[in-house]
Design brief:
By secondary structure, the protein is mainly α. The protein has 8 helices and no strands.
């Protein structure tokens, strides 16, 4: 990638390469599908590139890009669905993805998908990405109290999910 006169291209490239795995992991938590996760992360980075001067001036560029990703994920439910035509060849699985190491994700992801989008985003930010309530509130553009109540409701709902009951012994 060729750097422009201010070095913005190189700076964005470094940002993108450094954040790609965590953005895909975050998007996977929101979507439950690795393909959609990669598409969302790519779209979020494309929007961040266009707005890079504004993103890099933000207090927390990571939060800015996560917010873009959350908005894109919500937007995909508002659009009219178009059927996908999958080819006959299955691509090889990506290597080195930490989400592949989660033995229980086949159970966890469907349970997360049943949460409302706001609760799901809070759970992913707080417990998947390990952010504080304050950081999650900043990304979601809401109060810390809202993050707490959304997390409380989401966790209460997940505790009643029979698919997750086997985990309590772990």
């Amino acid at each position: 990638m060729r750097a422009d006169k201010d070095g913005h291209d190189a700076e964005f490239h470094d940002f993108m390469v450094g954040r790609w795995p965590s953005l895909v992991r975050f998007a996977y938590g929101l979507t439950g599908d690795h393909g959609h996760a990669e598409d969302l992360a790519q779209a979020a980075l494309a929007k961040a590139l266009v707005a890079w001067p504004r993103v890099r001036r933000a207090d927390d560029p990571d939060a800015y890009v996560r917010r873009i990703l959350i908005n894109l994920n919500l937007r995909r439910f508002r659009k009219r669905r178009v059927a996908e035509n999958l080819g006959g060849d299955v691509p090889e699985a990506a290597t080195g993805d930490s989400t592949d190491r989660l033995d229980q994700r086949a159970t966890l992801i469907p349970a997360l998908m049943e949460l409302p989008p706001g609760q799901r985003a809070v759970v992913i930010l707080r417990y998947w990405d390990g952010l504080t309530e304050t950081q999650a509130a900043a990304i979601l553009g809401c109060s810390v109290g809202n993050v707490r109540s959304q997390a409380s409701r989401a966790l209460a709902r997940l505790r009643t999910d029979p698919r997750l009951h086997d985990w309590s012994a772990s």
